[in-house]
Amino acid sequence: MRIDVFGDTLCASVTAAALAQSGHEVCWFIPEGRVLDAVNEGRVPYREPGLGELLGEQRAAGRLRCEPMTLNGAPAAPAVFLALQPGAQALAGEIADWLAGSGACGLLVNQSVFPVGTSEALQGRLAEARSPARVVALPETLQEGVAIDSFLRPHHILLGCDDPQAETLMREILRPFNRRRDVIRVMGLREAEFTKLAISGMLATRLSYMNDMALLAEQLDVDIDTVRQGVGSDPRIGEAYLYAGCGFGGSGFSRDVMSLTDTLRSKEVSAKLLEQVMEINERQKEVLFRRFWRHFEGEVAGRRVAIWGAAFKPGSDRVDNGPALKLIEALWAQDVQVHVHDPLALPELEAWAGGHPDLILHDDPYQAAAEADALMLVTEWKQYWSPDWSRLRDSMGTPLILDGRNIYDPDYVRGQGLLYHGIGRG
C-alpha cells in the first residue's frame, strides 16, 4: 500500500521506516528545518539506536522516499499518517484540507500529541468538505532509546476509531506489529488521546511518589531501594517506574503531564495532584546539589564538580527538561566549575549552555572526574555502572560520589575508600 507520513518528529521517522520495512511504499514528507537538512545531507536526524540503519536500508531498497513537505503535486496516498510537532494543529488542519481536495486518501491517522479533541476536529473538517476520509487516532507511545523496538514489538497500541472499515484497514497496516498477541485497544477518538496523557500522568505520579518516599526514608534511616523492591513485589503495584532518583526530564513526558494539567484546568477540574507531581520533580532535580552543599557546609564556591550523564535518559542525545540542566544552573549560581561527560548528548548540552565559561565537556568520563570535588551520576548509561573505583579515588580531589540513580552498592563503594550518597539511602 502507498502510505504518506507527514512530520519531523522521532515518531514520524520511526513510523516511516517501520512501515517501509513491512513492505509498504512510503513517502515521508518532512517540514523545512533541522531534520530535513540532516536527511538531505545523508545524516541521521535522531540519535536513536538502529534508526540510521533502518532508514538507510529502506531508502536503498526503494520502499522509502524522503521529500520536503508539500501540499501540491501527486494525490495523497490511501493512508496518511500525521506525526507533527506539538502545537502544529494549524498545519494538521491544512493537511486535512489538502486531503479533502485530493480525494484519494481514505484514512488519516493522527499520531501527533495534540490536545484532546483534535482528531475529532480533523474529522469534522473533512466532513465539512464532504470528504469520505476517516480519521483515526494512534497516539504515539514510543520510548526514546528503544523507539524502533517499541514500534515493531509494542506492549500496547491505542487506537481511537469509530468506523468499522477504518478499523479493518488499520488492523491490516498494524498486522506485522501485532502478531504475538492482540495488543490493539480500540476506543473512541477522544478516549485514545486522553488515555495517552493519562498514562504519562500515572507514570510521572509513581516517580514523584517514590521521590517523596525517598526523602522520608532518609529521615527514618531506611534504604529506599529495599523499600522499592518490597513495594514492587505487590502484584497490584508492580515494579515499573518506582525508582527514586534525581528527577525525570524529556520533552514528551513533561509535555504530556502539562497538557493533562491544562486540560483539567480548562474544564474547571482540580489539577492539584499533577501540579504537585511536577513540583516534586522540579525539586528533585536539585537534590544532588543540596547533597553537595551540605557535604561542604555551603563552602562550594570555586569548587569543581563532575557530572556523568546529561541526556534526560539513557539512549538519547537530548537534554530537554533533563535534571542535568537545573543541576548545572544551580552549580553555576554558586560559582562551581562543571565538567560533564555523556556518550551522546554533549552537542545538545553545548548548544544549551551557549558558551558558558564554567562548563567543560569531556570525551572521557575519567578526565571529567579528575580533580573533582564530587562526581554526580545523573543519567544511568550502562558504561557508568561498573567504574574503576580505585582510579576515581586516586584522581578525584574529594572522592565524593553522589548517585542520582541509585545504581551503585553503597557498602561496596565506601569499602573502596570513597564517600557515597544516594537518593533515599544515606
Q: How would you describe what is shown here?
A:
Pathway: Nucleotide-sugar biosynthesis; UDP-alpha-D-glucuronate biosynthesis; UDP-alpha-D-glucuronate from UDP-alpha-D-glucose: step 1/1. Its EC number is 1.1.1.22. Keywords: NAD, Oxidoreductase. Pfam families: UDPG_MGDP_dh (PF00984), UDPG_MGDP_dh_C (PF03720), UDPG_MGDP_dh_N (PF03721). InterPro entries: 6-PGluconate_DH-like_C_sf, NAD(P)-bd_dom_sf, UDP-Glc/GDP-Man, UDP-Glc/GDP-Man_DH_C, UDP-Glc/GDP-Man_DH_C_sf, UDP-Glc/GDP-Man_DH_dimer, UDP-Glc/GDP-Man_DH_N, UDPglc_DH_bac. The protein has helices at 10-21, 34-40, 51-61, 89-102, 118-128, 147-152, 164-174, 189-219, 224-232, 251-266, 272-284, 287-295, 323-333, 346-353, 365-369, 389-395, 410-415; strands at residues 2-6, 25-30, 64-68, 79-82, 107-110, 134-137, 157-160, 184-187, 304-308, 337-341, 359-362, 374-377, 400-403, 419-421. It has 426 residues and is α/β, with parallel strands linked by helices. It has three domains: 2-187, 3-Layer(aba) Sandwich (Rossmann fold), CATH 3.40.50.720; 195-283, N-(1-d-carboxylethyl)-l-norvaline Dehydrogenase, domain 2, CATH 1.10.1040; 285-421, NAD(P)-binding Rossmann-like Domain (Rossmann fold, 3-Layer(aba) Sandwich). The strands form three sheets. A six-stranded parallel beta sheet has the order 3-2-1-4-5-6, sandwiched between helices. α4 links the parallel β4 and β5 (107-110). The model has no long low-confidence stretch (mean pLDDT 93).
